[in-house]
Amino acid sequence: MKFGISSYCLSPAMDQGASIDEVIDFAAGLGCEHIEFVPFYTPFVLEKENRLNESYIDHVRKKCADAGLEISTYSVNADLINADPEIRKRETARVKLHVDAAQRLGLKIMRHDLASFRRPFSENTPENFEKELPLMIEAVQTIYAYAKEQGITTTLENHGFFCNGADRLIRTINASGCPDLKMTLDVGNFLCVDEDPLAAVKKCLPYAAIIHFKDFYVRQKNRLPGQTEMFNCNNGSWFETIAGRMLRGSILGQGDIDIPAIVAAIKTSGFDGYLSLEFEGMEECRQGTAISYAMTKALFARETTN
């Protein structure tokens, strides 16, 4: 297993002007074996100009190599099942451009979403999921085939609220007919749709190519009057689940997810891919990431007990 962090962990610092070089140096200083990138504050693609930022991509690839960091994956939000066919067409072209960026970065794995943008919870029903499934399969197959031509395997993540939940992700992967389509398995995001993280992780581990590692505080809404932000998990904001509970990112191991039990399940499964920390708590992002990464390494290093 290879341990690392997502650049997403340092989004607040990048929002305040931290450079990509500083992020890479920070990850290397933690002892990370790999780094994952998300295109927040990392302009690999110049979307308004509809082209790759080739000099930036080449710089990042060389900087990571010089720092001894493997680039593990690249994760892109998308709205590939929008009701408007023109939006779907534009989104497909945009995601393909990000595939081109991933290929230039030298990646073999890339995550893309299907419906990471918000829609009313009232639309998030089993009936609507079944109705949307053909569009999801079409989108998956299109991006998968395009990425395959460039030597990249795509993954889907339990991300957001609609394309989330163990059964929905497994159903989509199996229905796609794409032989090596895998999952970016986020151990915390199942809480967004009120699933038990441990049970869902165990169900999804056979499909995992990479694991996102995070923790959440979980509270009842009536304990947090006035805290009803949706969807805004940045910098430790509370946000609401489908069932009306409230979540907030925490330092790993300090929240309400049974992280030691999830570690035991991962170790028992024999998973031997990338594990990527995603810190999104209220604490200063470098400090929160460093504490969370140290906890991650310590939990995996110690003897597993029943």
Question: What is the fold's blueprint, element by element?
Answer:
Elements: E1 2-6, H1 11-15, H2 20-30, E2 34-37, E3 45-46, E4 51-52, H3 54-67, E5 70-76, H4 85-105, E6 109-112, H5 126-148, E7 153-157, H6 166-176, E8 182-186, H7 197-204, E9 208-213, E10 215-220, E11 239-240, E12 245-250, H8 259-269, E13 274-277, H9 285-301
Helix pairs in contact: 2-3, 4-5, 5-6, 6-7, 7-8
Descriptive account of the structure:
By secondary structure, the protein is α/β, with parallel strands linked by helices. The protein has a domain at 2-215: TIM Barrel, CATH 3.20.20.150. The protein contains nine helices and 13 strands. It has helices at residues 11-15, 20-30, 54-67, 85-105, 126-148, 166-176, 197-204, 259-269, 285-301; strands at residues 2-6, 34-37, 45-46, 51-52, 70-76, 109-112, 153-157, 182-186, 208-213, 215-220, 239-240, 245-250, 274-277. An eight-stranded parallel barrel has the order 1-2-5-6-7-8-9-13, surrounded by five helices. Strands 10-12-11 form a three-stranded antiparallel β-sheet, with no helix packed on it. α2 (20-30) runs parallel beside α3 (54-67), α6 packs parallel to α7 and α7 packs parallel to α8. The two termini are 21 Å apart. The relative contact order is 0.13. The mean pLDDT is 93.
Low-confidence stretches: none
- Characterize the main sheet: 8 strands, parallel, barrel
Mean pLDDT: 93
Radius of gyration: 18 Å
Reading the helices and strands in chain order gives: EHHEEEHEHEHEHEHEEEEHEH
Question: Superfamily at the CATH H level of the domain at 2-215?
Answer: Divalent-metal-dependent TIM barrel enzymes
Count of DSSP H/I helices: 9
Q: CATH topology of the domain at 2-215, anyone?
A: TIM Barrel
Distance between the termini: 21 Å
Secondary structure tally: strands:
13
Strand order of the largest sheet: 1-2-5-6-7-8-9-13
Helix content: 25-40%
Class inferred from helices and paired strands: alpha/beta
Strand content: 15-25%
Reported CATH architecture of the domain at 2-215: Alpha-Beta Barrel
